[in-house]
Design a protein that fits this description.
- It is built from ten helices and two strands; from the N terminus they run αααααααββααα.
- A two-stranded antiparallel ribbon has the order 1-2.
- The protein has one domain.
- The chain is mainly α and 256 residues long.
Amino acid sequence: MTRLLSGVALASAALAAILWLPDSVLRLVACAVAVLAAREYLAVLHHEGRPPRAAPVLLLVALACLWMSAPVPRDAMTLVLLGLGWLAVEVVFRGLTVDRAAARFLAPWYIGMPLGMLAAVQADHGPAATLLLIATVIVSDSAQFYTGRLLGRRPLAPAISPKKTIEGAAGGAVLATLFLTLVGPRVLPFASAGSLALLGLAIVALGICGDLFESRLKRIAGVKDSGALIPGHGGLLDRIDALLFATPAYYLYLQA
């Protein structure tokens, strides 16, 4: 019951924000979500002990989110330079290993930029376009789960997520692509059926990669969830892992 109630509350809050918040406020909400998810990411990353100072990384995450959601498109190279500068500081002056500093440097790109892109989609194309992407990811996840339970025989990535199957992934690809191809033209009238089908396949594939990426992080850390923010569901990062990987493809499709 706790899982159901918290899931309904989370979905209702997200839907209300997408439908009714002004774009400027929604950008700030996206930044807040990005910072919370990045805190979970850093906690998983530094599971073995007290993490180095997180504030500079979280600031870069918020900046990346704001930058990519700005009304006027921004050059991402500025963020790359800022991030590389901080990467050098962490390695040279703070004594972090290159791999650990690079993993921390990933946070603005892994979390901040996709959520900023999602806010930009909302500002440029309206709530319907935002909901179309989220619905496609939900259809994909649900189809993977139920197809996998019914038909799943061959594991997709047994070392990372033993319950995911090739059959489940195929079911998610078929149903989510069909959903996007049928519903997409009503939201994106300029889009052709062929391009939407390719986009649907990309969203599914990237969503699976995002899910497996976060699962791998948790398996390395030896934790079940990225956090405990959402009762019965784990952390915020657990709920948006697929969306983080799928959003850039959707954003670039709409920008083309």
